């Protein structure tokens, strides 16, 4: 699948940056599969490593700053909008808030590894009045750590990732249609079953 990475070329950098930014802004698209793919292929060349890692960290910082600013301006109302958009049940949001209040600043670093926590932590940091410089510093550390772990995992698992991509290439469009139908049905069920 090096051929795929070669075809993407410079677009790979932009694709990951846009994918990571949208994920940080709360758009429910997966970032990890693309980051693993990039780690499997970009880490073989030093300039690509710097560009890919920089793209992921920069996108994370920008997305988190948006939610931080929303939390600073709108308080917990920003968190309510985020939870409604992501279909996060109120009890999960309350639990995440308790974790943030208990762990404080460190939640911005390690919260990136907890699904959903990275979204909630940024707006909570803004709502609780954390300084912007402190927020940027902690978010940078968390984003850099997360980027190293995900890209590094992709590099370590490059043979398995290539095997999966070859299998997906053989299955083609029918698999894509089935997966898309399952995701649409799941999203519709979540929207329908969510209490108002």
What does this entry look like structurally?
- This protein has 196 residues and is an all-alpha fold.
- Helix 3 crosses helix 9 and helix 4 (46-74) packs across helix 8.
- Helix content is 84%, strand content 0%.
- It has helices at residues 2-8, 10-25, 32-42, 46-74, 76-86, 90-103, 106-110, 117-127, 132-156, 158-171, 173-193.
- The model has no long low-confidence stretch (mean pLDDT 78).
- Given helix and strand content, the structural type is mainly alpha
Give the H and E element order: HHHHHHHHHHH
- Number of domains as seen in the coordinates: 1
| Fraction in beta strands | under 5%
Shape category: globular
Largest sheet: none
Helix content: over 70%
- Quaternary status of these chains? single chain
Rg, please? 18 Å
**Average pLDDT for all residues:** 78
Put simply, the count of helices is: 11
Question: Which helices and strands occur, and which strands form pairs?
Answer:
Blueprint: H1 2-8, H2 10-25, H3 32-42, H4 46-74, H5 76-86, H6 90-103, H7 106-110, H8 117-127, H9 132-156, H10 158-171, H11 173-193
Give the structure's gist in a few sentences.
The chain has 196 residues and is mainly α. The chain has helices spanning 2-8, 10-25, 32-42, 46-74, 76-86, 90-103, 106-110, 117-127, 132-156, 158-171, 173-193. Helix 3 (32-42) packs antiparallel against helix 4 (46-74), helix 5 (76-86) packs antiparallel against helix 8 (117-127) and helix 6 crosses helix 8 (117-127).
List keywords for this structure.
196 residues, mainly alpha, globular
């Amino acid at each position: 699948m090096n051929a795929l990475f070669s075809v993407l070329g410079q677009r790979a950098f932009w694709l990951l940056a846009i994918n990571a930014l949208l994920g940080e802004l709360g758009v429910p698209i997966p970032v990890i599969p693309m980051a693993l793919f990039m780690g499997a292929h970009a880490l073989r060349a030093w300039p690509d490593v710097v560009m890919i890692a920089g793209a992921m960290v920069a996108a994370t910082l920008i997305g988190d700053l948006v939610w931080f600013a929303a939390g600073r301006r709108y308080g917990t109302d920003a968190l309510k909008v985020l939870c409604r958009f992501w279909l996060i049940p109120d009890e999960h949001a309350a639990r995440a808030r308790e974790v943030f209040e208990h762990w404080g600043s460190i939640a911005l670093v390690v919260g990136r590894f907890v699904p959903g926590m990275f979204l909630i932590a940024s707006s909570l940091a803004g709502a609780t009045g954390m300084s912007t410089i402190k927020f940027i510093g902690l978010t940078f550390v968390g984003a850099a750590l997360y980027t190293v772990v995900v890209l590094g995992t992709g590099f370590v698992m490059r043979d398995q990732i290539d095997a999966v991509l070859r299998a997906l290439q053989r299955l083609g469009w029918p698999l894509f249609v089935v997966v898309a139908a399952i995701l649409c049905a799941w999203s519709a069920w979540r929207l329908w079953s969510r209490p108002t």
